[in-house]
Specification:
By secondary structure, the chain is mostly beta strands. Among the domains are: about 150 residues, no CATH class; about 130 residues, Immunoglobulin-like (Sandwich), CATH 2.60.40; about 60 residues. Helices cover about 15% and strands about 40% of the residues. The chain contains 13 helices and 49 strands. Strands 2, 3, 28, 29, 41, 42, 43 and 44 form an eight-stranded mixed β-sheet that branches. Strands 15, 17, 18, 20, 21 and 23 form a six-stranded antiparallel β-sheet that branches. A five-stranded antiparallel β-sheet has the order 1-5-6-7-4, with no helix packed on it. Strand 17 and strand 18 form a beta hairpin. The chain starts with 5 loop residues before the first strand and ends with a strand. The relative contact order is 0.12.
Amino acid sequence: MRIPIKLLIGNVPEPTGSETWGDIIDNWEAYALNWNATSSLGVDPGQAPVLDMFGDESVSIKSVVKDLSDPSKLFTEYSRSFTIPASKKNNRIFKHYNNIDITNGLDSRELLPVKILMNNSTYKEGNIQIESVRMDKGVASSYKINFIGKLSELARNMGQDRLTVLDFSALDDASFSAEDALSSNTLGELIFPLSSRSDRFIYDTDTAVKNVENAKNIAYVNSTVADGYGIGENDVIGALKVGTIISKIESTYGFTFTGALKNDYISNLYLWLHQTDKSREGEINSAFADDFSYDTNSLSGISLNDNTISFSGYASPTYNRYLIKAYGTFTGEAVVKLRRNGIQVASVEVTNNYTTELVIPNNPGNYTVLVEHNGSQTIPVKVQITHQTYEQEEQFLPEGWYDEESILISGSASVGSAGKMIIADNLPKMKIIDFLSSIFKMFNVIAEIDSELNITTKHYDHFMSEGSLKDVSKYISVDRYDVGRPNLYSSMQMEFADPKVAMELGYLAVNGQQYGELSYELIGNTGVRLSGNEYKLKLENQRVPVEPLTNLAVGNVTKVIYTQFADLKSAEQNIKPMFTYATSILVPQGDVSGPIAFTSNTTVSEIITYVQPSNTYVPSGAIPSRTNAEVGLYFGEELNEYNVSDTIGGIGLWSSFYRGTTAMMFDEDKRSVKFTGELPQGLIIDLKLSDTLLINNSFYNINSIDTNYLTGKSKLDLTLVGRSRLDQFNPANRVISNNSTSAILYITYMSTSGEITTASIATSSTLTTAMVGTVLGRSHSDYTVALA
């Protein structure tokens, strides 16, 4: 039985009150004129933009939750290509797409907003794209188009925009102090977790300089500057809060996200602002010294501007002259260049060593100091000018030049990003759509979008738990249908980008697998590997284990932890974008957590409050433990990097967000079933992809529904889950019993509102709570779960 639908093109306001689309289309001109007057929509009042259709053309739209054959695909709907006539109305709507000579015609890459109407109500919203035009004797005869679900609005609005399009200038700091940034333990929008671009960090509270190649001691010992001692400005790398990025996407593109993307373990995630030094790309960072000021008194003929020392000439040149030289205080490789009128006249490459001393010529000139450095650093600069007079030969002194007085002029050069923090300059090279895709895939999020660009995001298991039970037995043909394996897979691989930095490579060498990866292979009852393809989910994000440091003075493992961005040879690497959680270190705790040293090249300061990276989320920002850990940034099971003996199991990404997905794919008691049926219009409109279907007393989850609106037939791709709903998708009150008489039970679970939640249960006690599925993370295994 044919199901009548209409395709209405454009962003047209929804009917209000008792009105229907039939009322609006029948009285189109009056509505269009009103809209244009009140909303400046620019709607053509001549004729409602409802596409003409061929009477015998098949239009099929397939709705999918997640394409289990491709884990990168998000929830959306799409159609197979179908044709419509090149009528006068369609030609007008499509702006004569085939005629490239028409000015302001339709861009071949453009998506057009569309509403699919059924029974004069909005059935689906999305976009259509023209694939081609059929020409017949030089005249267009038909268009081939396809429909894409509303989530295509993301790509339609963002296109290939990168994160740098977003305006984070409110967080920029033109007078940035690396020491102050590192000293803050506030987990705000922009943080600076403990990190190193190149050298490995070590920790020794007794001896400042350890003389270990490619390593520096970061434990505070004393204030004396020395090579290999203290964190330098170049090591300070920012991290931007994911919630801040999402908010900026909303305001920039007019979207409003709700649901899972606003959960704290997503919004309080951070994106590292790591860009390799320019020297890694064959460039040298450079900056002019500025803020010149006299250390003592001034000299006649010498004047100071912001970054220029100007000389106007000698009053009596025969018996007076000035000498000039400069030096800089730096670590690493640098060159201090003294320039006159833009021409280099002297240079030095050794810290605290002066350039060659030069005579200032007797004509006006401007002196500047240019500093080049292989990293990022604020370098103090000193310029010395000496006034000499010429003396005739006397009884006790030979004839010649003699010093009258010397003055010092101070300034500083902020090389690289030193002295300023510009967010746009430090963002990783990442498209906005790839940023969102990373978040969606990491936390198994699906999304639905409405006409107002409100995007509801939910974890997959939560989405599936919200469906209702619908008995569709009488609409489904059971005379002939296919039953197969739940999938074509015999193994699963979930992983991150290929290892590049030292801690990743070291972890791989020791453990034989990447940090954070999860591998699973089906084994039959006879012990033989089963046939099938590999289900692979790979996130093109780096995932680096953080390194806990041992206090070499006493041999204790501390909770001082950092991220290194270099390989085994301490060469900084250009990595894939990387996320991190953060812990807030409040006070020194002896050997557990202690003060760190920051070197400014002139002194070493003690820092006792700072932020550290973590691959485990704790809502309070505290050090992770089995009593507070909520979510881990890894697919499998990993040790607590802050305390390997205090790890909570089951908080990884698979355990928290992918259990339902993989249960549908790999559980041996599940089956893939494909039915056909004729679903009535009322059911089609009401049916949600999260619904569980009851067919002849068996329960099925929906993978996809493909409806042909010409024939009225629907193809249903379902998963047979048995005689009850799939446990992972079942929202229910459950009783958790802590059977231990000595240990408190700490658990994580997904609440019925769709958020990972923590709870504690005293020894020999129970907790009754509503949850989706069952317990996810647990501090020990001596517990039971039952339905309330």
